[in-house]
Specification:
By secondary structure, the chain is an alpha/beta fold. It has 19 helices and twelve strands. Strands 6, 7, 8, 9, 10 and 12 form a six-stranded mixed β-sheet that branches. Helix 2 crosses helix 15, helix 10 packs across helix 18 and helix 18 packs antiparallel against helix 19. Keywords: Signal. It comes from Amycolatopsis suaedae.
Length: 431
């Protein structure tokens, strides 16, 4: 990954923030009869559909109040949230990424409203599982799992394996039920001249695979040490060493194409949907899109085989900026997204609701998606995401996994690269 200089990066952040502020056309929350809402879900996504219905319900039940929805890009909000929320241009309600380096950092800076009283009075804590609640609550250091609620999710997410069943049938390969069968299937595709894994080495997919491989050798204590600093994270332990060496072996064996260093997440997904690859490892956020767009072949999904832990968590959070003018309206909107009718719409649109009725989900694939989520929750299997523990760690992981793909660094060197910024950040946290 190309690293920009500090001045260039800062200029880019200023430019993005300026664009966002100009787009508002004035104070974001300047009317008591208007709820200003920001989110970055596409209109045809499960969340986009459910939240559009929530806007209609909100306006119907709040006479004289209109929702001013402003769609923002993920990168827009990610790069400029601190600047925007520290101004008078903050919206009343926004979608924001969960984790220590994002929502946790904003809570530490005093930019988010403490929602604890609303959560208790509205009963949201009763419908969110303990594992999901971890990503909603932060301590004074901005570390998740603390005592105060700074966000509320109305959906969940996790990663899985997606299969092109037609390619498996064409090459006489069995859909894997175990890890050994997964490796055997990838060997069979390589012998047939087919690269098994659709991969995006430029963005999050490669780091997700690396972390998943580590999770196959990890337990809850390992996850808590890495994600929540409850113990010392050792980047040369068995789990991380296995992950880095196995990832490199998979590149050498042809399971992962070396050209994938230039492929982003979108390119990975569209290549799989085009039928170019038999397997894709990615998140439930692709599920609804695959349902809509794949028409040329049969596909299915499954949990990563024989791993107690999988990447996943709550979905992104509804957060209420500390400077929001219409906080009570924001709380009411969150309430509507948590109601079962909206939750069931989300589930039937390919999302993973946190408070839906599984019996109300009519599509067999969607029902399986949600049942697999409950399986993960039941075994405390959600292990969050590898970029969460430290600010800027996403770019560190992207660079490191690219080096594993192009062979420019050994697994040992890559693990050293991961260790340094993580340990530097932990040293700043104190006790």
């Amino acid at each position: 990954m190309v690293k920009r200089g500090k001045l260039t990066a800062f200029a880019a952040v200023l430019a993005v923030a300026s664009t966002m502020l100009a787009a508002c056309g004035g104070d974001a929350g300047d009317s008591p009869n208007e709820l200003v809402l920001w989110h970055y879900e596409s209109p045809d996504s499960a969340m986009g559909k459910a939240w559009a219905a929530a806007i209609e319900e909100f306006e119907r039940t709040h006479q004289g109040v209109k929702v001013r929805f402003e769609e923002k890009g993920f990168e827009q909000i990610q790069k400029s949230a601190q600047m925007v929320l520290n101004s008078d241009e903050a919206p009343d309600l926004m979608e924001y990424n969960k984790g220590n380096a994002t929502a946790g950092l904003l809570s530490k800076q005093g930019l988010l409203t403490d929602l604890s009283e609303q959560v208790a009075s509205r009963g949201w804590d009763k419908v969110l599982s303990p594992g999901v609640q971890t990503t909603c609550k932060y301590d004074e250091r901005g570390v998740m799992g603390g005592g105060k609620w700074f966000g509320v999710p109305n959906y969940a997410e996790y990663t899985m394996l997606y299969y092109n069943k037609n390619l498996f049938a064409k090459h006489g390969v069995k859909i894997p039920a175990t890890f050994d069968e997964l490796v055997a299937a990838m060997d069979a595709f390589v012998r047939a001249g087919v690269t098994p894994l659709s991969m995006g080495g430029k963005e999050y997919p490669a780091q997700h695979l690396l972390y998943q491989l580590a999770l196959t050798r990890a337990d809850s204590a390992w996850v808590d040490a890495f994600q929540r600093y409850q113990g010392k994270a050792d980047f040369h332990d068995h789990a991380w060493t296995y992950a880095a060496t196995t990832f490199a072996e998979w590149v050498n064996k042809g399971y992962i194409g070396k050209a994938s260093t230039g492929v982003d997440a979108e390119g990975m997904g569209t290549a799989f949907m085009a039928g170019d690859f038999p397997i894709m490892m990615s998140g439930s956020w692709w599920f609804g899109r695959l349902q809509r767009e794949i028409t040329a072949f049969e596909w299915d999904s499954s949990l990563w085989p024989q791993s107690g832990k999988t990447l996943g968590s709550s979905g992104n959070l509804w957060v209420v900026p500390q400077g929001a003018d219409n906080k009570n309206l924001a709380y009411d909107f969150i309430e509507i997204t948590m109601r079962q009718q909206n939750q069931n719409l989300l589930g039937n649109s390919g999302g993973v609701p946190v408070a839906g009725d599984v019996a109300a989900i009519t599509d067999p694939k969607s029902k399986s998606l949600i049942q697999n989520y409950h399986t993960l929750v039941g075994r405390d299997g959600l292990a969050y995401y590898p970029d969460w523990p430290a600010p800027g760690y996403y770019d560190v992981l992207a660079s490191a996994t690219q080096k594993l793909i192009n062979g420019s660094a050994s697994p040992h060197q890559v693990l050293d690269e991961l260790a340094r910024p993580y340990q530097e950040h932990v040293a700043t946290l104190g006790s």
